[in-house]
Amino acid sequence: MKTLKKKKKLRVGIIFGGKSAEHEISLQSARNIFQFMDREKYKIVLIFIDKKGRWYLNESPKNSSFTEFKKGKNILLNFSQEKPFEQIDVAFPVLHGPYGEDGTIQGLFKTANIPFVGTGVLGSAISMDKDITKRLLREAGIPIVKFLTLHRSLIKETSFKTVKDKIGLPFFIKPANTGSSIGINKVKKEEEFLASLKEAFQYDNKILLEEAIQGREIECSVLGNENPIASLPGEIIPRYEFYSYKAKYLDEKGAILKIPAELPANLTTQIQNLSLKVFKLLECKGMARVDFFLKNNQEIIVNELNTIPGFTRISMYPKLWEASGISYPQLIERLIQLAFERFKNEKRIKTSFSPQNP
What residue ranges of the chain have pLDDT lower than 70? Predict the structure, then answer.
């Protein structure tokens, strides 16, 4: 009698940390993904990037808890290691913000011929830059907030009065290429203007000044490649002035999450359809979370899109899918399947050309 050969586990590399102000959020997200991954299907390889950009490797993390890394040991890019690093089958980047969500590491994976979870180089770069995102949405006729873009070199030429006249009061000042509400301030009076500009410029060389919208904050999760699906929308009700970093990650009572959001069926459908439209327009694949404002007159305004949304235990992206019938472990499996699906499609593209045999 033949014994069934045990199926080889897929080696999944969870890449986390990174040179970003969102480093600590990445640790929380990676810890959750690690805990929910099916150990019968996947061999987990933890790849940590510290704030200086150094890479560390742990090929045998404990199943019971998330393994922390010690600096100076298991440096991944040390080519003098006696034991060679066995290539992973698929990368699962959980790097929020610059160097992880902006196309940088996605380009590395593509060059190394490694399938990876999430959006590719172009979609990541577009979606990370809120200025470029808003310009493309505006060009497509999708409703957005009034905004101004300011480069560091023009800071002395921009006055509070100019901004007030163009987008009104109050308004938000935020870095163009960060997430998790880092470096964001709500400006209500002139005395707050310069300090808010300086804080935003600590995190980017380009910042946005945006109209503050009175309305509800609605979020919708998207999953898929060519034929994506949208989750039920959820609502965030901040207990602070706005949905700040503290409200998102430090204070468990910082916001009330209504999942699903209490919305009429027609508005739910509109938000889902608009989420899919934005996802496709910005060249996204795999996953994204689309954030909206719902004004009192029921007008839907697109705020932004996140290509690597949070996966912490209080994050909306997995919670919305759970409410829509896809559990956390199932979601991880779907994302990995989508990574292989896109990789297979891209492999069909020719990378050589012969004039005699085109």
Answer: 1-6, 59-85, 179-180, 240-254, 350-354, 356-358
Domain shared by 198 and 234, yes or no: no
Nearest CA to 248 out of 15, 29, 38 is that of 29
Judge if 222 and 202 occupy the same domain: no
Beta bridge partners of 255: 238
Looking at residue 75, the DSSP 8-state letter turns out to be B
Which ranges in 20-97 belong to alpha helices (H)?
Answer: 23-36
Q: Are residues 31 and 55 in the same domain?
A: yes
**Cβ density class 125-163: b for 16+ within 10 Å, e for less:** bbbbbbbbbbebbeeeebebbebbbbeeeeeeeeebeeb
Residue 353 belongs to some domain of the structure: no
How many Cα neighbours within 13 Å face the side chain of 313? 8
Q: Bridge-partner residues for 186, per DSSP? A: 172
Q: Look up residue 239 and give its two tokens.
A: 């207990």
Q: What is the pTM of this model?
A: 0.87
The residues near 181 (Cβ < 8 Å, ≥ 6 apart) are 242, 243, 244, 245, 247, 248
35: nearest Cα among 329, 323, 286, 320: 329
What pLDDT sits at residue 222?
98
Asked if the structure places residue 72 within a domain, the reply is: yes
Residues 237 and 341 in one domain: yes
Count of domains for the chain: 3
Structural domain boundaries, residue 19: 10-117
